[in-house]
Every structure is written in C-alpha cells, then in structure tokens.
Amino acid sequence: MATVSKVVNGRDDVASGTRSRVLAALRESGYRSPGQRKPRLTGLVIDVLVDALNSAYSTTLLSGVITETAALGVDAVVGLTGGEHATAEDMAGRAQRMVEGGRSGLIVSTSAYREELLRPFEQRGLPIVVVDLANPPPAGVTSIGATNWAGGREAAEHLIALGHTRIAFVGGTERSDSNQARFHGFLAALSAHGLTAPDELVSHGSFRKAFGETAGRRLLDLPTPPTAVFCANDRLALGVMAEARRRGVGVPRRLSVVGFDGTYEARQSTPALTSVTQPLSEMGATAVRVLTQRIEGNHPVSHRLELATELVVRETTAPPG
C-alpha cells in the first residue's frame, strides 16, 4: 500500500520497474484518484505553457485557450516552457507545484520538449495535452496539430501553378515533426510535377525571423537565385522578405514568398504575406476541450487530432518576373 501511495502521489523514491507495474495495475483496475471521482469544471484550474508570450503564434493560440476556458468556467495559469533550456528537474518542480496548488491538468505548446520533460506530470497523474510538439509525444498523451503535410503541398502547388520551377524551402528546427511534414509535403508537390529541390535551395535552422534573413541572404547570393520561397512559418517568411527589401529585390515582382501559420503578422506585413493558415485559435480551444475531457476521466478516440489548414493568397506571390 505504501508503494502504491508513493506512485499515485508522484514520489520519486520508487524503482522504475516497480512504478511501471503499479501504473499498469492502476490502469487495469480503472482506479481514479479522489480528485478525479467527482468531475466538475467550475473552479477547475489548468496550467498552459508556451515558448514565448511575444510571438504571434503563441498569442493567437492563447486567445483560443482563454476564450474556451472562460466559456467552460475554467481558470488558466499561463507560464513559459523554458524552451531548449528546460530540464527534467525544472519540470518535476513545476509538476509538484501544480499538485500542491490544486491544478488539474496541463497544455503545452513548444518546439523543444522531449519525452523526459513530460514524465514528471504523468507520474503525478496530471493529464497532458500538447500542441505542435517537435517530437511524437509519449504514449497516452494527446496531441493537437494541423495538416502540416497537406499545407506544405498546397503552398508548393500554388507556386508551381504560377509558373515557378526554381523554388526554395526555408525551414525551422530540422528535427521538428511539423517542419519535416511541411518540407515533405513541399517535396511531394515538386516531385508530382517533375521538379526537384537542390541542396543549395534547402535550409533548416530555427523558426526565428533572424534565420529567415540569414537564409534569404544565402539564397539571393546564389548565381541563379530562386524565383520563389516557401517558408515553414511566417516569421521565417518575414525574415526572407526583409533581406529581399534590403537588396532591392521586389516581392513578388522578383521573388514570391509563402509562409505558414497565418498569424496576424502575415496580414499586417507590407506587402501582405501569402500564408498557409493554421486554425491556431481553434487549436487552443480544442486543447482545452480535450484536456477537460481527460480530467473528467474520458479519453479521446484518437491521441492525435489534426485540424485542416488553408492557403490564403495575399500579395507576396505572382508569376515569375
């Protein structure tokens, strides 16, 4: 009984093999902790972690989270993930504070988390929903995303339809699942039309605007620059456009640019950015609904939910000049 109690309460002084057997027995028996036996949403408090509060991606996602929690009578505590600097010790401390503060679950949106950083929450019986995690989440953790592969393909198809044949790709973190899906959707469209993406036209780095500027500089320095660029997010696209503007390269007259995310930055840029739009606000709202279902003891039919993307054509794409 003492060992089971330690596992249920997230104590660390239990051997991993013993912990696994106890968790398996709890699942088989359908055990739920006292806090889970009488589900209620009013007065419920959840944690929401994002990489940054000054990005259009995070603020749009959070708007969906806050709107949905308000509608359900749930309170949300917003914090930062710590990004690539987060450690298992940091997350163990946060998970323990959530337990002590009576919080009931966690939504995480980040491009940097690894499975071991989510484990402390699982050990303490805290349901987790992740949004656009860089790597596949642990078994049993529900993830919310968008149709990244289809979006990448649609972006490339749009540029090909305009007449572009020399099209570059500027991506974020190479190991990111969403980055890879967008890249491979892009490649699939090129392949379907008998086109290729030479190594000199492909860059992977980070999802930051500064890397977009660096990649744009390298592409525009080529003896034969591309006539179009598909970027794995809007910030990268804005970086490429900034570099083109510095060089007097007209967008879209000499260079067409497509982004991904469809943030307000895409709508407000000059010229307005053509972008594959993710339903970010709805993704945040969906994460809240799935998490509250998990807290009530209901499990979703699928552990991976993908919402549809849509290409929104604005002012940064045109036939090659």
Describe the fold and architecture.
α5 (88-100) runs parallel beside α6. The chain has two domains: 2-10 and 41-146 and 280-307, Response regulator (Rossmann fold); 148-278, 3-Layer(aba) Sandwich (Rossmann fold). 44% of the residues lie in helices and 17% in strands. The chain is elongated. It has a six-stranded parallel sheet, with helices on both faces. Strands 7-6-8-9-10-12 form a six-stranded mixed sheet, with helices on both faces. The N and C termini lie far apart (74 Å). It has helices at residues 2-8, 16-29, 34-37, 56-72, 88-100, 115-123, 148-161, 177-192, 209-220, 234-246, 264-268, 280-295, and strands spanning 45-50, 75-80, 106-109, 128-131, 142-146, 167-171, 202-204, 228-231, 256-261, 274-277, 304-307, 310-312. The protein is an alpha/beta fold and 321 residues long. Mean pLDDT is 91; it is low at 35-39.
Q: Tell me the major beta sheet.
A: 6 strands, parallel
Please list the strands of the largest sheet in the order they lie side by side: 2-1-3-4-5-11
Question: What would you call the structural class?
Answer: alpha/beta
Averaged pLDDT: 91
> Could you give the distance between the termini?
74 Å
C-alpha geometry: elongated
Percentage of residues assigned to helices: 40-55%
CATH topology of the largest domain: Rossmann fold
Question: Unreliable segments (pLDDT under 50, ≥5 consecutive)?
Answer: 35-39
What's the tally of helices?
12
At CATH level 2, the architecture of the largest domain is 3-Layer(aba) Sandwich
Q: SSE order, as H and E?
A: HHHEHEHEHEEHEHEHEHEHEHEE
Query: CATH class of the largest domain, please?
Result: Alpha Beta
